[in-house]
Amino acid sequence: MTGPQGEPVFLHLGPPPEEPGQFVVEGAPESYPPDVKARLEVDAKEIIGRYPNGRSALLPLLHLVQSEDSYLTPAGLEFCGEQLGLTGAEVAAVASFYTMYRRGPTGDYLVGVCTNTLCAVMGGDAIFESLKEHLGIDNDQTTEDGKVTLQHVECNAACDYAPVVMVNWEFFDNQTPDSARELVDGLRSGKPPRPTRGAELCPFRQTERILAGFPDQRPDDGQGGAGAATLAGLRVAQERDMQAPPTGDGE
Ligand code: FES
């Protein structure tokens, strides 16, 4: 490319130099041993069989290999491509788009602190700073005991319970710096607290297997679903006999 005077202009393509490597972590496996590959192939076949078009299985397959390695490794990406007949570039393009796919080793518990607008103003930023100091780690780092990976996350669609912390994608609502510190202490001591909503916690790799579509064996006693804060608007609308305005097509 040339500039206004015809001089050559260097365009740096790809990620900025300061951005963490794209799925490149020192020591990450480049391929799976035959026994691991054979085991994963059985699972992959089951997953792919659920879809009319095999390549639609890429997202759950990425969770499957993440359940093996705790993050996406060259071995995992290559495995997904092989199973679906996709190129490495096609797999990486999808994997790098979604933030639930991890680019570095993950501890038993992925603790995500929402620092998006509403949670931030309600105390999310303070919680995140407090946890960084308490755990002695920064964003996207893991404690030395391998128990907790800390990450700031964007809105988890639970703004009515702000500030929200998620552990392995289960909700801990209305947190404070004190309650969040207690939470991570419980995780590290082997006594994971019960989420405010949703099923009891299981380790990250097991969570990933559930996200790949394998059965969730955790007891379901109806603890999920909408809570009082979510239903507040509906309650007010019912009390005031409010109706949605008619749509233009007369329905
Ligand atoms: S802003 Fe935190 S859940 Fe929406």
From TrEMBL:
The gene is nuoE. InterPro entries: NuoE-like (IPR002023), NuoE_dom (IPR042128), NuoE_N (IPR041921), Thioredoxin-like_sf (IPR036249). This is NADH-quinone oxidoreductase subunit E. PROSITE patterns: COMPLEX1_24K. Binds 1 [2Fe-2S] cluster. One of its GO terms (molecular function) is NADH dehydrogenase activity. Keywords: 2Fe-2S, Iron, Iron-sulfur, Metal-binding, NAD, Quinone, Translocase. Coiled coil: none annotated. Residues 212-251 are annotated as: Disordered. The lineage of its organism: Bacteria, Bacillati, Actinomycetota, Actinomycetes, Mycobacteriales. [2Fe-2S] cluster binds at residues 114, 119, 155, 159. CDD domains: TRX_Fd_NuoE. It comes from Mycobacterium branderi. The keyword Iron-sulfur applies.
